[in-house]
Amino acid sequence: MDTCADTLTPVPACALNGSDGHGRTLWGRSFTPPAFTSAWKAARRFAPCAPTTVAFTTGAGELFTLVYDRVISRHTDPIEKKPFFHFRPGSEAYSIATVGCNLRCSFCQNWRISQWPKEHLPKRLEGTGEVQSNEPVCPRLTEMGERIPGEPVTPALVVESARASGAASVAYTYTKPTIFYELAFDTAVLAREAGLANLFVTNGFIGEAAQREVGPVLDAANVDFKFFSDESYRHISRCRLQPVLDAIRRYHEMGVWLELTTLIIPGVNDSDAELADIAGFIADLDRAIPWHISRFYPAWKMADYPVTPQATLERAAGIGQAAGLRYVYAGNVPGMAGEDTYCFRCGAKLIDRYGFFARESRIALDGTCPDCGTIIDGIGMGAE
Ligand code: SF4
To answer: Does the beta carbon of 105 lie inside 6 Å of ligand 1?
Structure first.
């Protein structure tokens, strides 16, 4: 897990040089059904960087995505790596991502793929003019679409591959499903029909219309809860705090299983006051929401910051417990005991984890603590 809860490593070198290795010609996909139009207008209002990354607008205000059918990665991960500790623990998640992100976090550990479009594509297209509905979007979009790195896919191929892998779920992760929303949504619909769960690992910076549209086919979301400071969100991640808080509340209201992750950066968001604000917000919403406290490792534009001391992680965990949270995990430190699951009522150790792996679970098949019978919050907690 990492800054965005889930790290993609290594990034295939061939995937970053603009060649997909398949010689296919793709162009920007239009996504203008009514439901999407309002969603993307909302996203543009909140995240003005989005249309200049992997979605482009014409003079007529129509948006086009360049990443609908090209993933930079697809493979199976332990679900604990996302991290989800209370959703089918010990299962595997078939994970996909495209290049691009609607944020620009200075500490991004996936920056080579999340920031690829901003580093390699023009910020805007001039003189695209009117678009004829059945024509390729425009020559320049076509040319840019060909430069998007990755492997061609379709939603059906992703679902078929996920089933063949034996995964229990499809995770939309590494960068952000918001930026490849159309691919994620269409895949999620097919995955649900195929009996697979759908997981978003997300920064929470999503328009309400899009979130409400995908909610019915989404099973769980791990949202980065990066800061409790609008200033930090603005200056470090180039977005705002309030839309993230709103999205977290909406996921909970929609019944999507929710876990939250905070990367603790020394000197940035490690004060008692800010950690108490984060923990208090979660506790007010629902004390059963797991809070993942994650160690920061220097990266990208914050390569000169120190690694989070273990004592800081333990202090943050104590603040979460003092706020009344039932499940607080301090991790991104292999071997640290803070990633095991305990019964919040009797304190019995229930799941033993090491790194990204759940090694042993004592939770009963009906999802209860074998010692005191308390129901352990989550989905599929007692599954074999
Ligand atoms: S939100 Fe985007 S830029 Fe920020 S850490 Fe995650 S992938 Fe990187």
So the answer is: yes
- The answer to the question of residue 368 being in a domain is no
Q: Is 346 part of a structural domain of the chain?
A: no
Q: How many residues does the chain have?
A: 384
For residue 106, give the 3-state DSSP assignment: coil
- How far lies 207's CA from each of 181, 212, 332, 335, in Å? 11, 9, 30, 38
Nearest atom within ligand 1 for CA of residue 4:
6
Q: Which of 3, 73, 102, 226 maximizes ligand 1 atoms within 8 Å of its Cβ, making it the mutation to test the pocket?
A: 3
Mean pLDDT of 106-134: 76
- Pocket probe for ligand 1: among 108, 119, 181, 263, the residue whose CB has the most ligand atoms within 8 Å is 108
Q: Is 186 helix (H, G, I), strand (E, B) or coil?
A: helix
Question: What is the chain's alpha carbon radius of gyration, rounded to the nearest angstrom?
Answer: 20
Is the Cβ atom of 110 under 6 angstroms away from ligand 1? yes
CA-CA distances (angstroms) from residue 66 to 30, 56, 210, 293, 318?
Answer: 9, 8, 18, 34, 44
pLDDT of residue 95: 97
56 vs 186, more confident: 186
Residue 380 lies in a domain: no
* pLDDT tens, residue by residue, 52-96: 345 655 555 567 788 888 999 999 999 999 999 999 999 999 999
Is 13 a member of any domain? no
Q: What percent of the chain has pLDDT over 70?
A: 79
* Of the candidates 24, 157, 22, the residue with the CA atom closest to the CA atom of residue 96: 157
| pLDDT exceeds 70 at position 127 | no
Q: Which domain holds residue 202?
A: 68-119+147-339
Cα 105 to ligand 1 centroid, rounded to whole Å = 5
Q: How far, in Å, from the CA of 106 to the mean position of ligand 1?
A: 8
Q: What is the pLDDT of residue 175?
A: 85
For residues 143 and 66, is the Cβ–Cβ distance under 8 A? no
How far apart are alpha carbons 127 and 290 in whole angstroms? 49
Q: Give the pLDDT mean for 343-352.
A: 97
The domain tally of the chain equals 1
pTM attached to this predicted model: 0.86
Q: What is the CATH number of the domain that holds 252?
A: 3.20.20.70
CA count, 13 A, side-chain hemisphere, 267: 7
Average pLDDT, the chain: 83
